[in-house]
Amino acid sequence: MQTNVICVLCLCACCILFCKFYCFISWYPPVYLTQVEDLKAKLAVQEVELWQRNTDIEALLAKIGQQTDKLNQERAVADAEERKARLYVYAAVKQM
User: Is residue 22 a contact partner of residue 30, using CB atoms and an 8 Å limit?
Assistant: First the structure.
């Protein structure tokens, strides 16, 4: 009697008696074709969710990169102003 079953080790369709025997020895239960289809559907949903998360993460990283660049520019301007102020203070102290 042939039954729709797949061995989780060799991934081949086989008769249920062989699969039960082989999987019993290997400590793996047989996986039925309906279970495989259910798992494929779940995997497809998870792949879509993962793609969406990756897209969101990439957008967030791009935004963080832009903010980092803006912060570095502002820091460079602040450093230049600080150097300029130190020169004024140094010049004022030297003239005293």
Answer: no
Our CA dihedral for 45, 51, 55, 61, rounded to 10 degrees, sits at 120
Return the closest-CA partner of residue 87 out of 75, 77, 95.
95
Give the DSSP H/E element, type plus range, for residue 5. strand 5-6
27 contact partners, CB below 8 Å, separation of at least 6: none
| Beta carbons of 5 and 23 less than 8 angstroms apart | no
> Confidence band (pLDDT; 50, 70, 90) for 35?
confident
- Mean pLDDT, range 19-43, rounded to an integer: 69
63 or 5: whose pLDDT is higher?
Answer: 63
pTM score:
0.53
Name the DSSP class of 9. T
